Amino acid sequence: MPVIVQDLKGKVKNAYRVSLPSLVVSLIIGFFGGTFLGTYLDKINRDYPGLLVILPGMMGLRGNVFSSMASRFSTMLYLGDLEPSLRDKKVLKNIAIAMLLSLIPVTILWAIGVLRGIRYHALEILLVVVSSTILVSFILGYFTAFVTIFAFKKEIDPDSIASPLVASMGDLLTIPALIAFILLLERSKEIFWGSNLVLIVLLLFLIGISRVRKAELLELRELFTIITALALLSLISGFTLQRFSGLIQASIILGFAYPSILSSFGNYGSIIAAKTSTALHLGEIDGYFSREPFLEIVSLFLTTPIIGLLINAFGILIAYLILGVEPRVIYELVLSYPFMALFIMLYSYTISYFLFQKNIDPDNVAIPLISNNSDIFGTIYVILIAKLIVGG
């Protein structure tokens, strides 16, 4: 027992020293994107309703593709398959592939939205989605590589910090980029079309110089298949968000906090998935009920009350600064948030473990699956909390 207590103390110390700061930074970044969403939610719902169907999928896709890439880089660094340098050719190649992997699913989401009858400004929405995806994927790709390699060089476990920072940076960039292209479209169609052309040329240029080959794309067909399937699954979140956007907006805080809540759940799940994947590849887990992964979950669970309180605090502050209102603390969220995060971490570990037992690499499947499922669970969770606050 003393050995277990000592191990737990060490992991709790690491969770507070390494993971918690990255989760807090991630939360702050997420609220920046949430400020844009809360401010423009009514406009998007009125003028570009199709974006609400695509938005959860786009946000999840960033986490799916780039958190997976971060986990893959981490495993490659530990195994010596990747030089800890941004100049390694594998870095650019992985970024170019990730950009391609990001484009196809969001285009499919747009097409399904059109088929479901959401055709108002359909072409404009497609161009906004394509342009923002290329731009955000390029920036996020290098950010992912930098964070992972920098942490590795500083002898900090990349699995503890990369996924939260990458997913939240995706949230930070995704919503403002979408809104920026919408405002550009409304202000100058010529510049909007020109920017689309420049970004498509950039994508083709990167694919060319990185020499991405068909065989390399086929190696990631498992990842491509799962993120496309999960993008389709994200339509549950998308149509749910579209239907209940008014309820979420009426709850005030949740309109601003929505991206942060989703990303924080995804972050907790991704940290556990990344740690589990690395430990499994290194042979450090010998059974489902191994002690180490559950100690990791408990140590991270002890940080969740802080994140729940900060979500409330940041939401109240932003609502006051943007809208001039003083909403109450959402005690329903404060009390339930830690247990929702615990459920997602246990779910994450279980999925990662059993996928590995089936000879499926968790880096390619578990993290995308968990990120997507966290968005669905998180969207339902936010709506339930909104119903408790607003009623209906």
List keywords for this structure.
single chain, mainly alpha, 14 helices, globular, SLC41_membr_dom_sf, Cation transporter, transmembrane, transmembrane helix, membrane
Q: Can you tell me the residue ranges where pLDDT is under 50 for at least 5 consecutive residues?
A: none
Q: Number of helical segments?
A: 14
Q: Tally of extended strands?
A: 0
- Overall pLDDT score: 82
Structural class: mainly alpha
Transmembrane segments: 20-41, 91-113, 125-152, 164-185, 191-210, 222-241, 247-273, 294-323, 335-356
Pfam families: MgtE
Main location: membrane
GO molecular function, one term: monoatomic cation transmembrane transporter activity
Describe the protein:
The chain is mainly alpha-helical and 392 residues long. It has one domain (2-390). Helix content is 85%, strand content 0%. The protein contains 14 helices and no strands. Helix 10 (253-281) runs antiparallel to helix 11 and helix 10 runs antiparallel to helix 14 (366-390). The longest helix is centred in the first third of the chain and has 46 residues, at 2-47. The N and C termini lie far apart (49 Å). The model has no long low-confidence stretch (mean pLDDT 82).
